[in-house]
Write a structure and sequence with these properties.
6-stranded mixed beta sheet; single chain; 40% helix; alpha/beta; globular
Length: 260
């Protein structure tokens, strides 16, 4: 399902100055897709954070992930004064099948389903399911955006000292899961480092595990660049692995992960 022709849509992205090559590639795929789809596009750097109240920035101790989680919502709300549909896409989202990709927003808003693959015992892979905010879509007069903004502020105000990086993104959206219903965008994946490594290698049971657990083809994916250099999570994610995975996804148009 594509957005209606009469609907004015804007795609929003942000990243600090001088993104590394893999992120530049991801941004370029989103910008090109937006242009081909006839959507407007806007990109900001650190000016994204100018929308945040000073108390919030102080409370999260300049944590850029939590700052971004709220700032993107405020930017989206601004755009709905001029657009029918405003869409945020993380800078590390790669659109690898642009001819198939569209914003599947079943109602007045849409969030993405998360399928996270990790190693289990005896060579097995385990899947957990949730929601993520790498892509958020809101139509004008939707019932969620204002509440989401309020909830982010209230959560930080009440629990700022013990919040983790993803408290305002996947964790908070997970609490909304039972009421979000069908407003889930299925064709945007989120690849854990173990899945990215398998894609980069061109084979691996982690890819098959992802395909079986997610249950829907994906035409774009968050490549989880925030895991670059982390020692945990199945050995972390290296720039070389990320670059190779991006190359494979673009070359195969997603066939390597979708199996078609």
């Amino acid at each position: 399902m594509t957005t209606p022709d009469a609907e004015r849509t804007i795609i929003l992205q942000s990243h600090r100055a001088d993104p590394p090559p893999p992120i530049t590639t991801c941004i370029d795929t989103v910008r090109a897709w937006a242009s081909d789809a006839g959507h407007d596009y806007a990109f900001e750097r650190d000016e994204l954070f100018n929308r945040l109240p000073s108390w919030f920035v102080e409370a999260v101790a300049d944590n850029r992930l939590m700052m971004s989680d709220l700032a993107r919502l405020l930017w989206l709300r601004e755009q709905l004064d001029r657009y029918d549909l405003a869409v945020w896409i993380d800078a590390d989202v790669l659109v690898f099948a642009p001819e198939r990709f569209a914003i599947h927003c079943g109602g007045s808003y849409g969030v993405c389903r998360e399928t996270w693959i990790r190693r289990g015992g005896r060579g097995q892979f385990l899947a957990t399911h949730g929601l993520h905010n790498a892509l958020l879509a809101f139509r004008r007069n939707n019932p969620l955006l204002d509440f989401y903004i309020y909830a982010c502020g209230a959560l930080v105000h009440n629990r700022a000292s013990n919040l983790v990086d993803h408290a305002l993104g996947p964790d908070l959206l997970g609490r909304f899961a039972d009421v979000l219903g069908a407003n889930i965008i299925p064709n945007v994946g989120l690849f854990s480092p173990v899945v990215t490594a398998a894609v980069a290698a061109g084979k691996g049971r982690a890819v098959a595990a992802y395909r079986a657990a997610h249950g829907e083809p994906v035409y774009a994916a968050n490549m989880c660049a925030s895991f670059l250099g982390r020692p945990a999570n199945d050995g972390g994610l290296t720039p070389r692995t990320l670059e190779r995975a991006i190359t494979k996804l673009l070359k195969t148009g997603g066939a390597i992960v979708n199996g078609y």
